[in-house]
From TrEMBL:
Keyword terms: Coiled coil, Repeat, WD repeat
Family from the record: Belongs to the WD repeat coronin family.
Residues covered by region (Disordered): 336-355
Protein name: Coronin
Organism per entry: Crocodylus porosus
Any one GO molecular-function label of the UniProt entry: actin filament binding
The gene coding this protein: CORO6
WD repeat positions: 52-94
A biological-process GO annotation: actin filament organization
Amino acid sequence: AHPGPQGLSSPALEGAGANALQNLSREGTGRRVWQIPDYVPVRNMTEPVVTLEGHSKRVGILTWHPTARNVLLSAGGDNLVILWNVGTGEMLLRLDEVHTDLIYNACWNRNGSLLVTTCKDKHVRVIDPRKQQVVAERFAPHEGMRPLRAIFTREGYIFTTGFTRMSQRELGLWDPSFEEPIALQEMDTSNGVLLPFYDPDSSIVYLCGKGDSSIRYFEITDEPPYVHYLSTYSSKEPQRGMGFMPKRGLDVSKCEIARFFKLHERKCEPIAMTVPRKSDLFQDDLYPDTPGPEPALEADEWLSGKDAEPVLISLRDGYVPAKNRELKVVRKNVLDSRPPLGPRRSQSSGDTGFPRLTLDELLEEIRALQQAVQAQEKRISELEHKLGQFTNGTD
């Protein structure tokens, strides 16, 4: 999970890049991706799977692509949006001339063909990242100076939160062209920035304000007033941040439709949203097929212009993760992109007496070393697993 301008969320568990159950951390300006094993490790993890270098300032936004394998978006205080292929450690795209100030948040649409971002310059932008173009934008959809947030709905509309000129909190629903708001509602005079968490399966958006002690939720429909207030969850203590469980992590036997993780000063509290039902049977209307962890596209396919809808799974029997979720980072060989070697010059008095190795021999030695290292890592993991079972009393 990452704290940042968006509050707390769980990008490591969402999107097509999460097939390996990864976690992300920030050290300096580098992004680190970690592999969390299925067993309980008996020693600290010190080596990330891959480190991504590209930002010059602190990064506050990380979000996985919803359909392409291992494509990760990052945005930071340098006003840059960078797209990565975590599977190779490469930078795919760099959007460096789009935003003129600090980026508040970024959100993919359902198939990952577009981005919506909000910025301190008061613009909301819809961006085609592969063309590196702004396809639509709106200046000051909410007139106040406080931070904005924007997300895509399942139908492609844009839901925003912000402040009025009189510092009242406000929400809005917009057509992607941003001509006129479909709905615009004032809420209250609290000064906490509203963080929207959206469930596309039920079309419910949950609004959590930093410093609030409540969660308000609304349903987005095709009928006026389009954004319908449903209810409010209230508690005694204010939240410092909020996380949102992916849909496949919910307990369907208890009719749980959402689960939050409320950050306190010294603890993290789970909050379950349930729909009371008398029947113990699976509730089809509450749990339509939902996006699973399997990608619909490879990173290269998406980058070349191909789009695809998410691969859906049923939650009827609960979600069972795949056995092999290991992320393998395959870096491209830098020697492959070098120009061909020129003619070999004859040995002169200035040459050393060391034997000359051909490129093929060097590559073969490198492959052998890599295989030896992988074999040792596998053996260490197996030994850790066995030791974990022994110390837990399961063996």
